Amino acid sequence: MTGWTSERVVSELLDRETERRAGGRITEQWPELDLATAYQVQDELVRRKVEAGERVVGVKLGLTSRAKQQRMGIDSPLTAWLTDAMILPAGVPVPLDALIRPRAEPEIVFFMGERLAGPGVSAASALAAVESVHAGFEVIDSRYEDFSFALPDVVADNASSSRFVVGGKAVSPAELDLALEGCLLGIDGAIVDTATGAAVQGHPAEALALAANALGRRGLAIEKGWIVLTGGLTDAVFVERGRTISAEFTHLGSLTLIGA
Ligand code: OOG
Ligand code: MG
After folding, report:
1. What is the mean pLDDT of each run of 10 residues along the chain (260 residues)?
2. Cα distance between residue 208 and residue 201, in whole Å
3. Looking at residue 224, what DSSP letter applies?
4. Could you give the number of structural domains in the chain?
5. What is the pLDDT of residue 1?
6. What is the pLDDT of residue 229?
7. For the CA of 77, the nearest atom of ligand 1
8. In terms of DSSP bridges, do strands 56-62 and 227-229 run parallel, antiparallel, or are they unpaired?
9. Residue 212 belongs to a domain with what CATH number?
10. Domain, as residue range, for 169
11. Residue 21 falls inside a structural domain
């Protein structure tokens, strides 16, 4: 079908989110949707959220680990936007009635102490701009049926962003070897997956540098005070009513999520 424009994709994806309705891939009907256009859609989609009162509070990386890339069948990392409406305070249940089919993934999270602008950002300079490191959970919720998408689809959909939780324990990046920071993912008390920080691009600071450089190519920067989710360390697991999902980190503390 023709007739698709960036504007129509933005409206369609926003409608699906509000109506809690997943749909087909946009690229199936509009194969010309390329990556550059998909990022324009993503930016416009978030601009519309800001117009509606939300505030951008940071950025996320997606598909930075092999576990995520293999599951989603896409091997390029991507970036997307976080807004204040996505913040789920620790201990608050995941509101299943407000979402489509959410999944949760443990992530290492950075709070930025300095602005970080690419190009030319290295992992070391990226880490130097970090104020603190935290444990996190991202709750993703695709606006595509069964999380089935090509890269431009998921980029346009703000990388399945839905909610995120950040642990209260703040650790200085200098105190940790983040590549070796371990994470145990549990469901109802049983460990279902494990990873270390090296899962994301060899080191979460490499992921941060990647985001700064990718945004830099679009004339954008990671601002001081922003939150950065560095990407799922493991594959994501479904959030279900009454299910307890836990992430236990070596030094960053533990988090639990409950579906309600
Ligand atoms: C896309 C978002 C990926 C991550 O951390 O890898 C992501 C998806 O899996 O639906 O957030
Ligand atoms: Mg994620």
Report:
1. 89 98 98 98 98 98 98 97 98 97 98 98 98 98 98 98 98 97 98 98 98 98 98 98 98 98
2. 9
3. T
4. 1
5. 53
6. 99
7. 6
8. parallel
9. 3.90.850.10
10. 6-258
11. yes
Distance separating alpha carbons of residues 190 and 246, to the nearest angstrom? 9
Question: Residues with Cβ < 8 Å from 246, sequence gap 6 or more?
Answer: 184, 185, 186, 187, 189, 254, 255, 256, 257
Residue 23 within a domain: yes
Q: Is 1 a member of any domain?
A: no
Q: Which residue's alpha carbon is at the smallest distance from atom 3 of ligand 1?
A: 62
**Structure token pair of residue 54:** 């939300």
10 Å Cβ neighbour count for 100?
A: 19
Inside any domain, residue 238 = yes
pLDDT of residue 116: 98
Q: Which amino acid is at 3?
A: G
Ligand 1 pocket: which of 105, 162, 164, 165 to mutate (most atoms within 8 A of CB): 105
Single pTM value for the model? 0.98
Q: 3-class SS at 222?
A: strand
Token pair for residue 221?
């920067």
Please tell me the distance between residue 52's alpha carbon and the centre of ligand 2 in angstroms.
Answer: 24
